[in-house]
Structures are given as structure tokens and as C-alpha cells.
């Protein structure tokens, strides 16, 4: 069966520091991968999606970037964090249909 | 552009009472519709989905939803709510013409269950 992992689970970082969040999927090949951000009390905002290695599409201009160095690995990064980057970051995958399956999320607090 | 509206931000029901969460969507073609549930600090879990066929779909945890094309709605229902159903519920829409793009989510409905 397929599983999706995210780490770290929680992260507290100072403003201006770099960021790297990792997402990996097991049990499937060539998945579509997605990064969402969920601000407190808000819905989900799509940040990036990827249909293959090295193929990244950005949905909104922002301080973040994404990379897909391997088929089942998706990384969210920033060179310098802003206060507004705080939130709950969710990775998701899909394969063949539009059904998306979500990871457990990473809670990021920027101080 | 596709959109999803969940008009109820917060709903409180008594344990054992019935539940209906509303979802209205805007989509130019045949939609794929989803309901997800999120417990505090957790990821989203798929409750049910509609692609085609029978407009009444059954999901996990005793939930069901009915697709009504004429009303552009996909409301979630449960006949008897349990305290463990307290969570946030998200409706989402996608479709054949979205390619590989992601779903569009509503802003969510937070469900509180009173004993």
C-alpha cells in the first residue's frame, strides 16, 4: 500500500533563516506531488505541484521554492523565511485520478 | 475558474443528531468532488469521492454525500453523529480538464459535537 511521509513534524525557525521540508511517497511510481499551505483557520492554498522529476509548477508568487530530485521525493525550501511563512504545510500525492492523499503535515512557526 | 463554497464556517450538533454539511461548487465541466476530514494538527483524510454514476456516494465512518448537478451541490450527511466526528471538513472539486493540477478546496467547516 502507499504511504506518504513528511518531516519534520514541527519546526520553529527565526526570521531570515533557511527552510527545507521533505516529503516522500512509498508504494507508487511517478506520482503527482503537491505542496499546500494552511494558515490558521483558513483553507488550503496550493503552492507547488509536480508531474515528474525536475518538473515544478508554482501556483502563487512567494518566498518559497520546490524541487523534485527523485521520483518520490518533493522538497519545499526557502532561503530566508518571513513571518508570513508560518503555517501548516501539507504534502499530497495522486496517481492516475484526481484523488489526492495527504501526509501528516509540518507545523512551521517563524519567530 | 473552479471554486468551492462551504457556507457554514462552524456547526455545532449534539451527539446522536443528524448532520448535513453544505458544499457548492462552480465548475465548467463534469466535476470530480471530494470530502476530506482533518483532525487538529493532522493531515487530511479522504471521506468519499464522486466521479460519475450513482449520485449518492457512500464513504468511510458512516458518511454519505449526494451530488446534485442542478444545484451545483455536494452536501455531506451523517444520520447520527459521534463525538469522534468533531473535526474540520473540506469539500474539494477537480475534473478532467484540470490536467495534473491540484484540487480546489473550500475554506472548511468546523464541526463541534456536544455530549
Question: What would a concise description of this structure say?
Answer:
Chain A is mainly β and 111 residues long. Chain A is built from no helices and 11 strands.
Account of the protein in words:
The complex is a heterodimer of chains A (111) and B (115). With 111 residues, chain A is mostly beta strands. In chain A, 0% of the residues lie in helices and 58% in strands. Chain A contains no helices and eleven strands. In chain A, strands 2, 4, 5, 6, 9, 10 and 11 form a seven-stranded mixed beta sheet that branches. Chain A has a four-stranded antiparallel beta sheet with strand order 1-3-8-7, with no helix packed on it. Chain B is an all-beta fold and 115 residues long. Chain B has one domain: Sandwich (Immunoglobulin-like). In chain B, strands 2, 5, 6, 10, 11 and 12 form a six-stranded mixed beta sheet that branches. In chain B, strands 3-9-8-7 form a four-stranded antiparallel beta sheet, with no helix packed on it. Chain B is globular, with a radius of gyration of 14 Å. Classes of the chains: A mainly beta (111), B mainly beta (115). The A-B interface holds A 6, 32, 34, 36, 42-44, 46, 49, 51, 57, 59, 88, 90, 92, 97-105, 107 and B 32, 34, 36, 41-46, 49, 51, 90, 94-95, 98, 100-103, 105-108.
Descriptive key words:
heterodimer; A: 111 residues; mainly beta; 7-stranded mixed β-sheet; 58% strand; B: 115 residues; Immunoglobulin-like; 6-stranded mixed β-sheet; 12 strands
Write the layout of secondary structure elements.
The complex is a heterodimer of chains A (111) and B (115).
Chain A: E1 3-7, E2 10-13, E3 19-26, E4 32-38, E5 44-52, E6 55-58, E7 65-70, E8 73-78, E9 87-94, E10 101-102, E11 106-110
Parallel strand pairs in A: 2-11
Antiparallel strand pairs in A: 1-3, 3-8, 4-5, 4-9, 5-6, 7-8, 9-10, 9-11
Chain B: E1 3-5, E2 10-14, E3 19-21, E4 24-26, E5 31-38, E6 44-50, E7 56-58, E8 64-68, E9 73-78, E10 87-95, E11 104-105, E12 109-114
Parallel strand pairs in B: 2-12
Antiparallel strand pairs in B: 1-4, 3-9, 5-6, 5-10, 7-8, 8-9, 10-11, 10-12
